[in-house]
Design goal:
The complex is a heterodimer. Helix content of chain A is 31%, strand content 19%. Chain A is an alpha+beta fold. Chain A has three domains: 83 residues, Phosphorylase Kinase, domain 1, CATH 3.30.200.20; 205 residues, Transferase(Phosphotransferase), domain 1 (Orthogonal Bundle); 155 residues, Rossmann fold. In chain A, helix 2 runs antiparallel to helix 4, helix 2 runs antiparallel to helix 8 and helix 4 crosses helix 7. The two termini of chain B are 33 Å apart. The chains are: A alpha+beta, B alpha/beta.
């Protein structure tokens, strides 16, 4: 394959080729311009090859298949694709901002910064997985931080679209990924588990927080496998500044068994956004890696176990949603409390991986300054939290599955909608008073949440008349992209 | 151009009508019938008429093994049920319809595409594409970038790089698949009139030559009505029963 068509100064399909800005083992990048496109764009073409390295070609085919199907702020915007018949290329947005690679020099970063970066990358993964794509090569050099703050993922050469053919399946004689970051199941040749991206993000967070790669830089395939039986040194042992919650989050991402990791990037993003609420287990305080005896036992158990192509696991993971329950604790809403719990229980009965986030809004008066204490000097916020926990107690859920949040805001509807957006909530349960003409005219918190939330909203009502058999829930699909 | 591929209608009027209505909603510009218009189902006359009508408006049609057998009345290679249905079909079709079937071409080439009923290596042998080995035999036998075939009643999509064995992808309905890159593709259609992939919905595909995307579609139809006609025609009962379970 040659690049005769691609030279600075020449024009291909209307794209004027400018400066070559990158020439690597896999691909070459040029800045290009085209009348009508007034944002910076680049053209990417597979590297010039002496031999016929199929992996480079197939990786490029994979990117040609996936990038045009992605949208949103967390990926480069796609402009054009050129086929193999003449000259394969992709034209995409040139993302202005910083590569996460540049942050490595400053590692170890302060834990707050690691948490904030982790939340941004997890949010990008939420968006990617919702488009049925697994990245499968998450590492610092494949993550850009836009000037606007969002993380954008680049390079989809090893990625997998779960509804499209996996062109790399045939190339699967060796594990594909980047040594320090590759997930155990990828080493075992499984390219269809969304939780592989969570593992690689865990490696990244570990590295940023400690300046040490949890599994070093493996040089051989045999040393890649070490991570299957040897746990990493707990990050707090390397950097005591790391709070237990961050160690908990990192080590949960790095679990060898995908079932022990976060079920979805949304759940990881949730804990990174609310680290003080992250449920802590033994992982949080661990100070030693697993014993040699345990490593030997796991090494022995791993012999002969090898995956191969698997049926893709749904990237949506419909059984592990985040459900937000908006609980209004005011006295006149008390008749609804049981009804709300009943609806939560129905969801719990069918979805074992569900996480419940109980949210109450402490409405602020814009004139009040010292809002945290009531007339008799009690802390209103703490009192609310206690009441909210009491509301949730009859559900009987362990702390990994339920969290409680009191948000202070002047507008309860706006607070609830923002919370649902920020935390990638899959469904909102919200109580509503019995509808009256006046409420219909003035609008209610519930109706605003129904109209503006980014997900499914279930409105729960208390029975209208006593004695009647009533199913008092309206479900409204507020999600624009529902299939 | 958006080309709809319909294969293995097998005399199933309800399934054909449902699929044709679907192709209109999906804005297909032209139709390609990949063979086996008749056999098994109770409406061979209607199906042949409808296909001939479509061909007057530019549709293409390929010969299938059941079309050949029904046209010539030669059913030696068939199993008992198929033979019973084909004998009935032979007697139901008039001479004109039989001549139409007999004159259908074995294969059609169009740009970088090959249309054939069974597979490309030996179309007259009516071999089945059921796995990677049989797919490879077909894909090596043609230089066309994409082969469209039917015959096995199970939707499958194979893709193959030069010097590599093909890879099977079991397509899901509705997601358009880009047939990109440095490789050949073999698109095996599901059946319109007698699906056998344990999904009773009628199957067909649309290929968009502009976007280079192939969409596999599944269309619900009135199975009850198609089954009742099979009973009414005293065709083997199993031919009606299997429609409900897609086997």
């Amino acid at each position: 394959m040659t690049h005769q068509l691609l030279q600075t100064g020449s024009t291909l399909d209307g794209f004027k080729i400018g400066e070559k800005i990158h020439s690597g083992g896999m691909a070459t990048l040029w800045r290009v311009t085209k009348p009508g496109i007034d944002v910076p764009i680049v053209m990417k073409a597979p590297a010039i090859l002496d031999g016929d390295d199929a992996t480079i070609i197939v990786g490029f085919e994979m990117e040609m298949m996936i990038l045009p199907r992605l949208s949103g702020v967390h990926v480069p915007k796609f402009y054009a694709v050129g086929d193999f018949a003449r000259q394969p290329y992709l034209v995409m947005e040139y993302i202005q901002g910083k590569s996460l690679f540049s942050f490595i020099d400053r590692a170890p970063l302060p834990p707050e910064e690691v948490i904030s970066l982790g939340a941004k990358v997890a949010t990008a993964l939420v968006d990617l997985h919702r488009q049925n794509v697994l990245h499968l090569d998450i590492k610092p050099s494949n993550i850009m931080l836009r000037e606007s703050g969002e993380a954008a993922l680049i390079d989809f050469g090893l990625s997998r679209h779960l509804l499209l053919p996996d062109l790399l399946e045939e190339e699967f004689r060796v594990p594909m990924g980047t040594g320090p970051y590759i997930a155990p199941e990828q080493i075992m040749k499984n390219r269809s588990d969304p939780r592989s991206d969570i593992y690689s993000l865990g490696v990244l967070l570990y590295y940023l927080a400690t300046n040490v790669r949890p599994f070093g830089v493996p040089q051989a395939q045999s040393s890649l496998k070490t991570r299957l039986w040897r746990d990493p040194v707990p990050p707090r042992k390397l950097n005591p500044q790391i709070p237990p919650a961050l160690q908990e989050i990192i080590l949960r991402c790095l679990e060898v068994d995908p079932d022990q990791r976060y079920a979805t990037p949304a759940q990881l993003a949730f804990d990174l956004a609310n680290p003080s609420q992250a449920p802590l287990t033994e992982r949080a305080t661990r100070m030693e890696r697993n014993s040699y005896f345990d490593a030997w036992r796991r090494w022995f158990a791993s012999l002969g176990a090898e995956g191969g192509p698997q049926q893709p696991r749904s990237a949506q993971n419909n059984l592990a949603p985040i459900i937000m329950v908006a609980v209004d604790l005011s006295d006149d809403m008390e008749p609804l409390w049981d009804e709300l719990r009943t609806n939560v229980k129905r969801i719990l009965a069918t979805m074992p991986g569900v996480r419940i986030a109980c949210v109450n809004v402490l409405k602020l008066n814009r004139l009040t300054i010292n809002y945290t204490l009531d007339e008799s000097g009690r802390n209103v916020h703490v009192q609310r939290l206690v009441e909210l926990k009491e509301w949730g107690r009859p559900l009987g859920l362990s702390q990994e599955r339920i969290t409680f949040h009191v948000i202070e805001h002047m507008d309860p509807a706006v607070a609830l909608i923002d919370y649902a957006k920020m935390n990638h909530v899959d469904q909102v349960l919200i109580g509503a008073r019995t509808t009256t003409t006046l409420r219909r005219l003035l609008g209610s918190t519930a109706s605003q949440v129904v109209a503006e939330a980014p997900c499914t909203v279930t409105v729960v009502r208390a029975p209208v008349t006593s004695g009647a058999v009533i199913l008092a829930a309206d479900t409204e699909e507020a999600r624009a992209d529902s299939p | 151009m958006r080309i709809a591929f319909l294969s293995d209608i097998h005399g199933n009027r309800e399934a054909l009508d449902a699929c044709l209505a679907h192709t209109e909603r999906r804005k297909a510009d032209r139709l390609v019938f990949l063979g086996d218009l008749v056999g098994y189902g109770a409406d061979p006359v209607y199906v042949v008429d409808r296909v001939r009508e479509a061909m007057e408006k530019g549709a293409l049609c390929i010969l299938g093994n059941h079309d050949e057998a029904a046209a010539r009345g030669v059913t030696t290679a068939m199993n008992d049920y198929a033979r019973a249905a084909l004998d009935w079909t032979f007697n139901t079709l008039d001479a004109d319809a039989r001549r139409f079937l007999q004159e259908l071409p074995m294969r059609i080439e169009e740009d970088d595409r090959l249309y054939v009923h069974s597979e490309a290596s030996a179309p007259l042998a009516w071999a089945y594409v059921t796995d990677v080995a049989t797919a490879e035999r077909s894909m090596r036998a043609t230089s066309h970038r994409i082969t469209f075939c039917g015959h096995v009643h199970k939707p499958q999509l194979y893709h193959m790089q030069p010097q590599r064995p093909p890879i099977l992808f079991v397509p899901q309905a509705r997601t358009p698949i880009p047939l990109i890159g440095n490789r050949k593709w073999l698109a095996v259609q599901g059946a319109v009139g007698q699906p056998r992939d344990q999904n009773p919905l009628a199957a067909y595909t649309i290929y968009d030559t502009d976007t280079n995307e192939l969409s596999f579609h599944r269309v619900p139809y009135d199975i009850e009505a198609a089954a009742q006609k099979i009973h009414a025609a005293s065709l083997p009962q199993i031919l009606a029963a299997r429609l409900f379970i897609g086997r």
